Amino acid sequence: MIDYKDLTIKFSNTKIFDKLNLSIKQHSIVIGPNGSGKTTLIKAVCGLIPYKGDILVDGQEIRKIKNYLNLSTNIPEVYTIGRKVKDIVDVYSEIKDLELDTFREILKELRIYDEVINKRILNYQQARAQ
């Protein structure tokens, strides 16, 4: 089960979620229109975006599961470590003691494993060109 409690996510000055409370039970299917925030919720669970409030997976706050640390640097080489999400996941499993099997199982439960794990990572110039 994933519980979002008083979840607030914002980008710049725009609030995407403001004190959202939501429970997603195992084997649930979450649907909604484009732009409704499904991907944002997944990114928050995976620790890819900052948030306020709590995200609990099976009752455990995800920040506390494995010594949660944010990665921030101005060294460009860090952002070219991997070409696909699976490369970055492998790096995180080494440097942050990420539970690789748990991460893979979450993606499989959400039915997005193949879509996410093999996604190509664009650098800043590539992303701007698209």
Give me a quick take on this structure.
The chain has 130 residues and is α+β, with helices and mostly antiparallel strands. The chain has helices at 38-45, 62-65, 85-95, 100-109, 113-117, 124-129, and strands spanning 2-11, 14-24, 52-57, 60-61. The protein folds into two domains: 1-65, 3-Layer(aba) Sandwich (Rossmann fold); 67-130, no CATH class.
Q: How is the topology of this model organized?
A:
Blueprint lengths: L1 E10 L2 E11 L13 H8 L6 E6 L2 E2 H4 L19 H11 L4 H10 L3 H5 L6 H6 L1
Antiparallel strand pairs: 1-2, 1-3, 3-4
Walk me through this protein's architecture.
Pfam families: ABC_tran (PF00005). This protein is an alpha+beta fold. The chain has 2 domains: 1-65, P-loop containing nucleotide triphosphate hydrolases (Rossmann fold, 3-Layer(aba) Sandwich), CATH 3.40.50; 67-130, no CATH class. It has 6 helices and 4 strands, in the order E-E-H-E-E-H-H-H-H-H. The protein has a 4-stranded antiparallel sheet. A hairpin with a 2-residue loop joins strand 3 and strand 4.
Offer a few descriptive terms:
130 residues; 4-stranded antiparallel β-sheet; Rossmann fold; 2 domains; 4 strands; single chain; alpha+beta
User: Quick check: average pLDDT?
Assistant: 77
Q: Which bin fits the share of residues in helices?
A: 25-40%
Fourth-tier CATH superfamily name of the largest domain: P-loop containing nucleotide triphosphate hydrolases
Question: Would you identify the CATH architecture of the largest domain?
Answer: 3-Layer(aba) Sandwich
